[in-house]
Automatic annotation (TrEMBL):
<dbReference type="Pfam" id="PF00005">
    <property type="entry name" value="ABC_tran"/>
</dbReference>
<dbReference type="InterPro" id="IPR003593">
    <property type="entry name" value="AAA+_ATPase"/>
</dbReference>
<dbReference type="InterPro" id="IPR027417">
    <property type="entry name" value="P-loop_NTPase"/>
</dbReference>
<keyword id="KW-0547">Nucleotide-binding</keyword>
<keyword id="KW-0046">Antibiotic resistance</keyword>
<protein>
    <submittedName>
        <fullName>ATP-binding cassette domain-containing protein</fullName>
    </submittedName>
</protein>
<dbReference type="InterPro" id="IPR003439">
    <property type="entry name" value="ABC_transporter-like_ATP-bd"/>
</dbReference>
<feature type="domain" description="ABC transporter">
    <location>
        <begin position="11"/>
        <end position="256"/>
    </location>
</feature>
<keyword id="KW-0067">ATP-binding</keyword>
<keyword id="KW-0813">Transport</keyword>
<dbReference type="InterPro" id="IPR050763">
    <property type="entry name" value="ABC_transporter_ATP-binding"/>
</dbReference>
<dbReference type="GO" id="GO:0005524">
    <property type="term" value="F:ATP binding"/>
</dbReference>
Length: 322
């Protein structure tokens, strides 16, 4: 087994590129070819034990990246190693060290009961029987699958199937788990339970998780770090609070005055809206609210104050459009 060098991250991506050549008919028998740069100049490193959100608008290059990380797609340029292995050249070895879950399609056998699907995976991966029993017992209990083990996959609800898929991806103790839209179509309670499970998995087993999702609440609930990809390349890599700052968004101080009055004038904040005695003042996300609150409270008769944090959806929208 290849181990990572001391400088190499568990997932090591440098100047990664994937271009597709697309042939189009351009009238009559003539064909023209165009190149689509799905991913280019993409670099990031992920350490063992991190839980990272990988987000971007439709067509940004997320799936193309995940496919290269799992070895399904061969990069057309750059450097890529996962657990010290070049994915497309060592797909089988790598498969023993990673788990993949796609929210939109199952990797389980449609006509088989869950139990048989799991047993088959034990044989395919050559999982030690004692370890297999232990893992199965743990995940079946944590993901509440006990009463579903004899049900064929095609009869499971979306949420039940997702729990089955996650168990299937974890039975062989992967170091890295890729999750592609794991909460898509799930109700609020199922989403919450799944997030709790993933958080615990990351904390107790130290599983490295790369999460692709359009549901930004998944990211807010789970990921300290987020990589934003747009037009095939990374446009942000950092913590969620930094993303708020980088997105250029503002926080809002909502002030309820005792009496209606003219717009409040304090350094560092601007009145954006005024409705009777209530005024909305915006100030930069990276500025401290304390001096602004103190200035307002000392110069005006205030009944109440509150701070509204920026909505992450707005932050991301700013970033994509900016
Ligand atoms: N096999 C392919 N042949 C040609 N172009 C492709 C191929 N796969 C992807 N692309 C193009 O590469 C770009 C990135 O696509 P990709 O599927 O990676 O985006 P994505 O971020 O996963 O999008 P979504 O959020 O919609 O799933 C798009 O312009 C897409 O049309």
């Amino acid at each position: 087994m290849v181990s990572t060098s001391s400088t190499e991250k568990l997932i090591d991506v440098r100047d990664l590129e994937r271009t597709f050549v697309v042939r189009k008919r351009s009238g009559g028998l003539r064909r023209t070819t165009t190149e689509v740069r799905a991913v280019h100049d993409l670099s990031f490193g992920i350490e063992a034990g991190e839980m990272v959100g990988y987000i971007g608008p439709n067509g940004a290059g997320k799936s193309t990246t995940i496919k290269m990380l799992t070895g399904i797609l061969v990069p057309t340029g750059g450097h890529l190693r996962v657990a010290g292995l070049e994915p497309s050249k060592h797909r089988t070895d790598l498969a023993r060290r990673i788990g993949v879950v796609f929210g939109q399609r199952t990797t389980l056998w449609w006509d088989l009961p869950l139990r048989d699907s799991f047993d088959l995976l034990q044989k395919i991966y050559g999982i030690d029987p004692a370890r297999y029993r232990e893992n199965l017992e743990e995940y079946v209990a944590l993901l509440d699958l006990h009463d579903l083990m004899d049900t064929p996959v095609r009869q499971l609800s979306l949420g039940q199937r997702m729990r089955g898929d996650i168990t299937a991806a974890l039975l062989h103790d992967p170091e890295v788990l890729y999750l592609d839209e794991p909460t898509i179509g799930l109700d609020v309670i199922s989403k919450g339970r799944l997030r709790e499970f993933l958080r615990a998995l990351n904390q107790t087993r130290g599983t490295t998780i790369l999460l692709t999702t359009h549901d930004l609440q998944d990211i807010e609930a789970l990921c300290r770090r987020v990589i934003v990809i747009d037009h095939g390349t990374s446009v942000f890599d950092g913590t969620l609070p930094d993303l708020h700052v980088r997105g250029g968004s503002t926080r809002t101080l909502v002030v309820d005055l005792i009496d209606e009055g003219p717009p409040i004038e304090v350094a560092g904040a601007t009145v954006r809206r005024l409705d009777g005695p209530r005024q909305w003042l915006s100030f930069p996300s990276d500025a401290s609210a304390a001096p602004i609150v103190a200035a307002v409270a000392s110069a005006y008769d205030v009944a109440d104050l509150s701070i509204q944090e920026p909505d992450i959806e707005d932050v991301i929208r700013d970033l994509y459009l900016g």
